[in-house]
Write a structure and sequence with these properties.
The complex is a heterodimer. By secondary structure, chain A is mostly helical. Chain A contains 10 helices and no strands. Classes of the chains: A mainly alpha, B mainly alpha. Chain B: It is found in: Cell inner membrane; Membrane.
Chain lengths: 218, 242
């Protein structure tokens, strides 16, 4: 499984396109927002937590359809399904690789984008913490969506229609944690809920995704 | 005698052929009685005026919208566990009805909210959850129509329905946490204190009964259509083979 993670990370980094694209997309969203709402500092401070979380979420979505599609096309997914590693493990490994190549860079780069949006002082810590806690859930939920749509010709659009509603709870608690942190309130409740969602999805969704993959490979 | 008898499509078709017209008539009568009674023979509310009467459409539609998803969940589970095709088709047939009911609830709510709350839309937990439910229905239906092989489609949509149910409930609580409500509490509950006043209560019950009957009749009819469509497809394939 570790080899599978390394293989996917290596593919993402070397093949180009996937890796870094999410980050660039995040940057563009962050740059576009002030053009839309105006450069006023106070307004940006108020909406920064939400915009940063929505941006991170969309950046995650961007590379989801590649998670299984490439392996599906060249047939390596069939080999992975018959490998001694359980398919649930394959899904978890692929989700982890997806997180390492999109989620983790987002977490690291987010404070910089927070700076662009005039995020207030204590918000930076909680932005990093909430993204670090929440983005694994985004990757796993995305893996489920990608597994559902892997066999489809133009699955990308359908994938976002399926996955975005599932992102709602994560987004609410994540953005709420940053907002409360930025205003100096207690962030305990939303962070705990966010961690709960991540733990729950990590435990359950690989099984659902593997079931969907098995149906698609039938 | 068990309910599984109706998993046989032929048996299902034979029974529902007689059942659907009866249910449809019952639904029409109940809806006519409930709505006419509600619209014309109940007093205006002293604060809301005549706008209160939209309750006879809004509440039953919202009730069906949620319960249609639960029905789909049950049907999906039956399909995944026992592989009865009728069950998978019933889940497929219920989705468009459910999404229509969700839309009716949202639209009637907006129409009522405009004069009462002074706004067509507010990001209130109940309203928001319904919008999310609407998106879930759309995704479910889109997945059904995107996959060609019927068994694969049934399997994948069933898995989506299971996962979606968990997330729908989760979203409901998340949304509650996120914003305070403008929407009033339950209109109907076993706790009589919370109920709407008696004059509105009885016609509302009749209207709900009408909506439930209408839902069952529509789902059965749509399931029959799906079964026929599948039979047609099989016949066409056989013709091409011969």
């Amino acid at each position: 499984m570790i080899r599978l993670v390394l293989r996917d990370v290596r593919l993402a980094v070397r093949a180009g396109g996937g890796f870094g694209l999410g980050l660039a997309f995040f940057l563009i969203v962050t740059v576009l927002v002030p053009f839309g709402v105006g450069p006023e500092g106070a307004v940006l401070t108020r909406i920064a937590p939400g915009i940063l979380w929505v941006g991170a979420l969309l950046a995650c979505l961007l590379s989801l359809d590649r998670m299984f599609a490439l392996d599906w096309e060249d047939g390596s997914l069939d080999l992975l399904a018959t490998a001694p590693v359980p398919l649930e493990g394959v899904v978890a490994a692929k989700a982890l690789a997806h997180w390492l190549t999109t989620g983790l860079p987002l977490v690291v780069a987010a404070p910089l984008f927070g700076l662009l949006l005039n995020l207030s002082g204590p918000g930076y810590v909680w932005l990093v913490v909430s993204l670090a806690l929440g983005t694994p859930a985004l990757s796993v939920i995305g893996a489920f969506g990608a597994a559902l749509t892997v066999g489809l010709k133009r699955g990308g659009l359908l994938l976002s229609l399926l996955v975005l509603p599932l992102y709602v709870p994560t987004l609410i608690f994540g953005a709420e944690a940053v907002r409360r942190g930025a205003e100096g309130l207690s962030v305990e409740t939303p962070l705990l809920m966010l961690a709960g969602i991540t733990a729950g999805t990590l435990a359950v969704l690989p099984f659902a995704a593997a079931a969907a993959l098995r149906v698609n490979l039938r | 005698m068990s309910i599984w008898r109706y998993a046989n499509p032929a048996k299902f078709m034979a029974t529902t052929e007689r059942l659907v017209p009866a249910l449809s008539w019952l639904a029409a009568v109940a809806l006519a009685v409930g709505l006419v009674w509600g619209f014309f023979f109940t007093p205006d509310d002293y604060r809301q005026g005549s706008t209160v009467k939209i309750i006879y459409l809004h509440v039953p539609a919202a009730l069906i919208a949620i319960n249609a998803w639960f029905m789909m969940l049950a049907a999906s589970l039956i399909w995944l566990i026992r592989r009865h095709h009728v069950s998978a088709l019933a889940a497929k047939a219920a989705a468009p009805v459910g999404v229509t009911m969700t839309l009716i609830a949202l639209v009637t709510g907006a129409v009522w909210g405009q004069p009462m709350w002074g706004t067509w839309w507010a990001w209130d937990p109940r309203l928001t959850s319904f919008l999310i439910l609407f998106l879930f229905y759309l995704g479910y239906m889109a997945l059904w129509s995107a996959i060609e092989d019927p068994d694969t489609a049934a399997d994948l949509t069933s898995v989506l329905c299971l996962v979606g149910s968990v997330f729908a409930v989760l979203s409901r609580y998340a949304v509650n946490f996120w914003n305070q409500g403008l929407h009033q509490g339950a209109s109907l509950s076993l706790d009589a204190e919370e109920n709407v006043a008696d004059v509105f209560y009885l016609p509302l019950l009749v209207a709900i009964g009408g909506f439930v009957l209408l839902f069952i009749a529509l789902v059965l009819q749509r399931t029959r259509t799906e079964i026929r469509a599948r039979r047609l497809h099989a016949l066409r394939l056989r013709e091409r083979m011969a």
